Amino acid sequence: MGTAHRNRTVQKQPNAVALAAPADCENTRKFKFGFILAAFALTLLFAATSMADGHAKGEQSCQGFGPQTPRDIDQLAGTNKRSFSLAPDYTEMNLCNIHFHANAEHKAKDFAIYAGKGDDKGVGGGYQCAISQSLSKAELKPVSKSVCGGIEPGDTVEFHWVHSSCDVSPGPTLGACLSDSCANPDLRVETQVFTVVNDENAMDFEDFRYAGAKQGSLHQVKALPTGTGLPVEFAGSTTGPSFDAQQCSPLQVSWSVRPHCAKVSIQSLAKWCESNVFDEDHAHGVRELVTDPALLSEIE
Questions:
Q1: Do residues 111 and 156 touch, judged by C-beta distance below 8 A?
Q2: What's the pTM value of the predicted model, to 2 decimals?
Q3: Residue 220 has what pLDDT?
Q4: Strand residue runs (E) in 79-186
């Protein structure tokens, strides 16, 4: 199950904002969420101010933020000066969340077909797999019912297996990745881009799901995809359509992105969306690709 990575170590800095987490009691939870919302509001205000200043001066916004994600993993250059230590291998961490995006958020040679910018929620944006253009009629045959909120054969999806250094159990949203006693965890995201096909002989997502049990002392998926290239490892941030080049994410995340697409059975994907501990029943929108070297870490 273990996969080799490109390793790089740099200096650690604390996260600027903690992810939302469940609390032991109602008052504590209300206090935490109030604090987090206030901190996040300040982050957005800072981002908006940076954006206004940047536009006024004709300069890049998001000044002072760490490296951002998603990116073109074939482009290794990055000049962002804020650094942090990459998280341990995922086998040494707890799986805390699995979610997925409609189209690939990242870009690589194998998934470089531009789908568009998307709407204000990132729907319709991102990149598609090259293999999606050469599928057979059988692989593209429509299914009889809606799958995962509208996923169809031929679609591209990007899956994120999120891991935390906290002693937590897998659950919905990134709030499951921390706890009352662990509010500033190391985070690692293992990533695979799939082309969805109507072929039960394609990869079975059942092999990559969380089965509800620990392996040793840690929560882990059954396995992660193999045969799709050596994962490209780099320092970045959270993704999703809430952020862009003018409104950056303050969170620090270690990424491992597999460079090749794989075909996944739409039947197995439908089964996972119907029942999983993450309450995932549809694909999320994407964040626009980050291209400014000043917002990217160097990939070594």
A1: yes
A2: 0.81
A3: 97
A4: 94-102, 113-116, 126-128, 156-164
